[in-house]
Write a structure and sequence with these properties.
The protein is an alpha+beta fold and about 130 residues long. It has one domain. The protein is about 35% helix and about 10% strand. A two-stranded parallel sheet has the order 1-4. Strands 2-3 form a two-stranded antiparallel sheet. Helix 4 packs antiparallel against helix 5. The chain starts with 7 loop residues before the first strand and ends with a strand.
């Protein structure tokens, strides 16, 4: 039996997590308030700098040597790239921006992040 691969941990800080506002105002890093969608947190974890992700909508638009576009562009379903599936959940206005809503959103996002080799958790940044 193949040993299970250890997952990296990504902490989403509710104070800086940009979620539930729809896709128009969303960005990996929104410059005017410093908020990031979950994919912005992941790009930083992978080594991109904030300047590279500022005002960019999805990871495949990031021009940084540490961001492997093919990882985010993998197909989840016909016509649906992984990064778009994640962005749709992150930006879903039907999930409230409350503690309960955040937990629900994280539960929906977890399977996609596990495919990226990441364990997603909700918590505060240090």
């Amino acid at each position: 039996m193949k040993p299970k691969k250890r997952l990296a941990t990504l902490v989403l800080d509710p104070d800086t997590w940009l979620r539930g506002e729809g896709s128009i105002p969303s960005a990996l890093l929104r410059p005017y308030d410093g908020k990031m969608c979950c994919l912005g947190f992941e790009c930083l974890r992978r080594g991109a700098d904030k300047r590279a992700i500022e005002s960019v909508k999805i990871p495949s638009g990031v021009r940084h040597h540490k961001i492997k576009r093919r990882v985010f562009e993998a197909k989840e379903a016909p016509g649906l790239r992984r990064e778009m599936a994640i962005a749709q959940i992150n930006d879903d206005t039907g999930i409230p921006v409350t503690r309960a809503g955040d937990l629900k959103r994280v539960r929906k996002l977890r399977p996609y992040f596990e495919k990226l080799g990441v364990r997603l958790v909700l918590g505060r940044s240090k």
